[in-house]
Amino acid sequence: MVRWPPRAASGNPSAMSISEIYQLQKVSFKNIPTRNPDMKRCLDAAAAAAPHDMTVLILGENGTGKNLLAQAIHNSSPRAMGPYIALNCSAIADTLIESELFGHERGSFTSADRDRKGKFELANGGTLFLDEVGDLSPAAQAKMLRAVEYKQFERVGGEKTIKANIRIIAATNQDIFTQVETGTFRRDLFYRLKEVIIELPPLHSRKEDIPLLVEKFIEESNKKYNRTVLEISDEALEVLIKYHWPGNIRELRSVIKSAVVKEQGPALLPERIQIAGRRPPPRKAPPIFVEAEEEEDLSLAAYEKKHIGMVLGRTSGNKRKACQILKISRPTLDRKIELYGIEYPGRSSQRRRKKKPVPP
Ligand SMILES: Nc1ncnc2c1ncn2[C@@H]1O[C@H](COP(=O)(O)OP(=O)(O)O)[C@@H](O)[C@H]1O
Ligand SMILES: [Mg+2]
Question: Which of 87, 170, 191, 352 is the most buried (most CB within 10 A)?
Fold first, then answer.
């Protein structure tokens, strides 16, 4: 059961939009179906950690479901009735991070015209989700450390030490192990954040989950766009399974959404699937009309000859277009063609030879 409205909304109405609140209400481990053994292990670890107040660090490429998992952990924790406050650490300027995290007192800086609670305070009684934590600057990491360790802080310009009863979940798409090794991420903060560490697999390594996810996204898109697609055709599913999904589940979701919107029939057809691998191949440039060199000639003149030949090839011998592309005048182009003996479509060596004066 989720209290309505959740405390985050009453504490700070701008903290969550209504759609985010609805989404948060629905997310549980049941919403993350999987047949993949690695993913199952991730979900088991998350479910085991959920009831306890341990920090959880979720790793994984963009779009692998880090936010979703963080919400599922919160929703199955004893804090589920409390606020869930998310902070995207990469989106905050260094100058604002302290006020964003810990709040400020009125008058503490020029634009501080009233007291304001920070995310640590807003999350009191619930969960604070630190998204993209690997993007925090060294200065911001230092400020974060004490608050994460002791769950206490002061507002900017404030004297009073405030204690927050929070559980912290963090996520990053960065290679945090290397960041710790190279010193770009503080080791002490890393240890605080990773009491449990969960690394979500990319979608290309859990392709057995594609049919489950597709089914979910078809259902979701049918509702949203008032469509009646019943299933995906075998051919379309094959296309999805062959693709490598650099944008992971986020990309799959948007591909299915746009396919459902376009589909008029009961089954999604392969031609509705628009993914990078299915874009028409780029047009090949016509062959370069230059004679092959015996030995590689790296002079500027040789390069110019090849380049002009290539442009004339691409314009199918149209000199006017070639001049526009090369940004040179027609007499200059003609002079260079003669100088370098450039062959181009419509001007064969045969024709040139014919033009030569015939000896008496
Ligand atoms: N198991 C899943 N089932 C349904 N949708 C999912 C699942 N995992 C991720 N998504 C969707 O994919 C998108 C990206 O997920 P998100 O949690 O924001 O990823 P990340 O934080 O790793 O970038 C979101 O729209 C999310 O709802
Ligand atoms: Mg995310």
Answer: 170
